[in-house]
């Protein structure tokens, strides 16, 4: 009889414990969506706040400087109070020059590395090479900047004697080296996700390994590859420290890579370092430049989404 009572008590305790756990789980289940919603809302509000700040401060800048001058003037000399000129073209040309050089360096090397890792390398080789590539992405950009200034530029001056100490060629190459891991890693992931049945089918039809790679795998993974290219371009456009250290601070409308230039990000760094007082036109100009940079990045992201959708529809 005593044993039966003990068993009954134990069963009651188990039922209570189960109900308690269920109640706790229900509370957690109800709280989790709310917490996740708040976190998502914070990220959205932060983005909205950044965009609104850019818009309001840019409007203040254009209340002092004509937008026509901003878009059509060829010179950018904001620090001359009496004859200041605000032609964004000078900064845009420097930014595009760095970006084009970086993409010329990064795209073929990054894509070749991705093809090798995905289609030719053994598992052991892939486990060794891929982490080494990804280590490049973890190097601080200021280190890349000093590498460009103290190593790459003197090396290039032996080949191009007229190359200035501060130029677009050296930081462009180093920015390209910096974004190689991004392009290689994302492209390799896209190619690795292609089903093996497609490889096996192409090989069964008599295709060589190179033909399978170039005519089957790369087209099938093109949406991911294009996305990696666009992300690399966005990263190159937004790079700051490398171009600030090795590119110079000479805003000019030129596409000569041997000359000193200034990018949009480098100008923002220069002014943010204390070269302009709060509330001045020069101070507000960094928001106008930042808005231009934001629009560049936004257009690239929209273009990447459009291209990715088109390739998905075709393949």
Automatic annotation (TrEMBL):
Belongs to the binding-protein-dependent transport system permease family. CysTW subfamily. It is found in: Cell membrane; Membrane. Keywords: Cell membrane, Membrane, Phosphate transport, Transmembrane, Transmembrane helix, Transport. InterPro entries: MetI-like, MetI-like_sf, Phosphate_PstC. Its main location: membrane. It is a multi-pass membrane protein. Part of the binding-protein-dependent transport system for phosphate; probably responsible for the translocation of the substrate across the membrane. The chain crosses the membrane at residues 35-56, 86-116, 128-152, 164-184, 216-237, 282-304. This is Phosphate transport system permease protein. It comes from Metabacillus rhizosphaerae. It comes from the Bacteria. NCBIfam families: phosphate_pstC (TIGR02138). The keyword tRNA-binding does not apply. PANTHER family: PHOSPHATE TRANSPORT SYSTEM PERMEASE (PTHR42727:SF1), PHOSPHATE TRANSPORT SYSTEM PERMEASE PROTEIN (PTHR42727). It holds the Pfam family BPD_transp_1. Gene3D superfamilies: MetI-like. Residues 92-304 form the ABC transmembrane type-1 domain.
């Amino acid at each position: 009889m005593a044993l039966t009572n003990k068993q009954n008590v134990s069963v009651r305790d188990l039922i209570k414990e189960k109900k308690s756990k269920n109640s706790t789980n229900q509370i957690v289940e109800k709280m989790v969506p709310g917490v996740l919603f708040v976190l998502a809302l914070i990220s959205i509000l932060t983005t909205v706040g950044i965009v609104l700040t850019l818009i309001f401060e840019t409007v203040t800048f254009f209340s002092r400087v004509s937008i026509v001058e901003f878009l059509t003037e060829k010179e950018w000399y904001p620090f001359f109070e009496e004859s200041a000129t605000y032609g964004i073209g000078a900064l845009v040309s420097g930014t595009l020059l760095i970006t084009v050089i970086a993409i010329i360096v990064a795209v073929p090397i990054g894509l070749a590395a991705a093809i090798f890792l995905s289609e030719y390398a053994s598992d052991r080789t892939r486990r060794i090479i891929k982490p080494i590539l990804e280590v490049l992405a973890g190097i601080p950009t200021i280190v890349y900047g000093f590498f460009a200034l103290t190593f790459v530029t003197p090396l290039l001056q032996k080949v191009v004697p007229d190359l200035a100490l501060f130029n677009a060629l050296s930081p462009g190459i180093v920015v390209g080296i910096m974004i190689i891991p991004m392009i290689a890693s994302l492209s390799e992931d896209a190619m690795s996700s292609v089903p093996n049945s497609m490889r096996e089918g192409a090989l069964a039809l008599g295709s060589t390994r190179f033909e399978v790679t170039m005519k089957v795998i790369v087209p099938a993974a093109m949406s991911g590859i294009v996305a990696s290219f666009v992300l690399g371009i966005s990263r190159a456009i937004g790079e700051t420290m490398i171009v600030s250290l090795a590119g110079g601070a000479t805003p000019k409308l030129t596409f000569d890579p041997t000359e000193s230039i200034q990018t949009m990000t480098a100008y923002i760094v220069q002014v943010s370092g204390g070269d302009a007082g709060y509330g001045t036109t020069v101070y507000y100009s960094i928001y106008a430049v930042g808005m231009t940079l934001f629009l560049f990045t936004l257009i690239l992201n929209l273009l990447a989404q459009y291209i990715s959708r088109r390739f998905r529809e075709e393949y």
